[in-house]
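Thought: the user wants the 3D structure for the chain below. I'll pass the sequence to the structure tool as-is, report back what it returns, then summarize two notable features.
Action: structure_tool
Action Input:
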Amino acid sequence: MKKQIIFLFLMLPLICCAYPVYPQKAESLQSFEIGDFIKLFMQIPTNESKDFIAWDTFVNNENFIWETDGVDSSESDDGLVSYYRNAMVRINVNGLAPLRLKQNWTEMPWTVGYITTNNPNFGAEVVSIDNECFGYYTTKNCILPPFKSLKRVNINYKKICKIERGNGFETVGYELSSKGLRTIYLLYEQDGGTGGSYETYHLYFSKPENLCES
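Observation:
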């Protein structure tokens, strides 16, 4: 029985690969377990710009498909300018990945964005991790809480704030730490309401004054 349990555990990372990937250009990417993926950003050395990461972070990682040339920008209706750089990445959570129904069920890559609303010369202050999964009938595995995965890779998480916005929508802030690595902050949003379900992660490299309202 013990051998069977060990075998099933070893098979978990492969479950995500049981479906074809759409778009097809992401098929060749290795799938990151979410805990391992978040830990990548905790391993970035702290320097004089400890609140930011460089725009070219992981630029040569073959498991990122960069979709932005350089750094782009957008402006909101109230005039706030955001600078960003996006990549396509395959991510699974405890062996499960978000699925979209095309002609058959297909695995959905995630969008990883480096973002800042400050001076872009400093770098990116936030990393967004979004599976873009929404809706009940044509998607599956839209909400995959990361906590078992974080624990597996020895990332400690401490809840520091929570806002319940109603109808299954909540925002929770965590401090993430691991021995020998930089401490970062996770804003985890999920909505399991009647209109569809989705989740989004935001990683901050310094603690925002009001994390759950960021």
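Final Answer: Structure generated. The chain has one domain: 20-213. The first strand starts at residue 32 and ends at 33.
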